[in-house]
Amino acid sequence: MAESDTQPDTQPETRHGIGVSPGTAYGPVVQVAPPVRPPADEKAVDDEEAALADVRAAFESVAVSLEERATRVDDTAQQILKATALIARDKGLVKAAAKELAAGHGRAHSIENAVETYAAQFEALGGYFAERVADLRDVGSRAVAAVLGVPAPGVPPFSEPSVIVAEDLAPAETATLDRRLVVGIITEAGGRTSHTAILAAQMGIPAVVQLAGATEIAPGTPVALDGDTGEVTIAPDMELVTAQRERAARRAEALGRLSGPGRTSDGAEVALLANIGGVEDAVAAGAQDLEGVGLFRTEFVYLSAAKAPTVEEQTEIYRGVFAPFEGRRVVVRTLDAGADKPLKFADLGPEENPALGRRGLRLSAERPDLLDAQLEALAIAARETGADVRVMAPMVATAEEAAWFARRVRENGLPKAGVMIEVPGAALRAHHVLGEVDFGSLGTNDLAQYTMAADRMQGALSDLLDPWQPAVLDVVGLACDGAARVNRPIGVCGESAGDPLLALVLVGLGVSSLSMAPSKVPVVRLALSLHSVAECQAIAVAARSARTAVDALTAVREAARTELTDLL
Ligand code: PEP
Ligand code: MG
Fold it and tell me: Where would I find the PEP-utilising enzyme mobile domain in this sequence (predicted)?
């Protein structure tokens, strides 16, 4: 926004949330509009034919606007928006609305009732269909808004660089944001490891979650946010904005002085790697100063796919991901479908507790055809490109599972097999589990969820999910000990790898690679360069000796060098 617009009438007010994507941002607030409901006093229609034409036009305008948005976003986002547009074009929805009109309901109520009839059917079908109910209701709410002539729910159109504020954003909503215009994201709910936070960091958009009262900030109010500290100032004065910008510039300058592979101050190598979700991320990360990819979440590519992708289709995507990393490592995770990341073509039906159900490798065991097709495509793409491709399985719990996976990987001609260590059972028995494979990668997001029995999707549980919880650090430490016993490398690809202070703890516990959103690499590189392995080990002991998560963080902050903590 222009500097002349920035002298607000209101007093500046600073609040704190959780910073989940680094960087600072300043801009006017765009509030994501809540769903639109039909008015309670809506009149019945007198001309049924005209009303049906309006309803049809409303659904069509929703489809057209979704398709129009799809032209302005990347591949993954396009798929999501096009799939939602298809729901809006479903003839059955218009037919169901026609029945409601014939029964004497008004236009908006007819749309809502038709959508709810469909939603009930989707919910009864369970699995993938049940997961699409949110998209269906979104289409319904947009059609209601269109027929009432009021602004659509969701992100309203805006043309100047702005900060998006919402109660929470669905992963699909985050993925479809226009990167050029969204300078920051603030949510009232959400958590450190919710997929919205992960996507924001991957997209390089500074973000703060868990900001109390965020949805009450008036649209257009200027805000300044710091995605490192979680600090948000509403209606800041220009002095504060300038100070924040200067701090960001100093930080960027300090971080820019260092480059190259990750090393501790005494020269121990700790590979700095990127977490990516598709070809576009790979191209962006490939151009950056990092050593490869430590986690390619392949399921992100297929979130909206209706049918299982063929070997050829997959090969093309994997080629695109590997090409920017010639001579560098790319760790590919096989489909981690299920729970919060359902895939239509890999659905085993409804479950009471999907996070504890047949997800990740458990799903692959029931659908080995999907796993084999993926491994075949990966092997072809790996042969055709010069990347050092390694494949790992999600949600491994036992040594038998690890052995089963490794055999299949090798049968498909891929040289290196690994497993995610994200189930506490696998962490406790890491010596047996990792003995079956070539490497391990700690998924601290799920490891925290399962160690603390706290749903990672629930922002209200973020204190329990805090990766500084000493119990989680203990489990990570035990997994590293197990890896050392069988002489296998172990890294971290959960969000904690991108926290510069936690990175020191993790290195002290024995990890040899850290994989994170590319925007977090420079500060982690700096943190490592300022501390020796022995210092990291002492820092890890201090963290594990703490009684609480807050004490662990405080102890590490005090023990770390001020050249680092002054920048945080
Ligand atoms: C994790 O669980 O830490 C992880 C890296 O995988 P995801 O966040 O995709 O579950
Ligand atoms: Mg996981």
Answer: 159-230
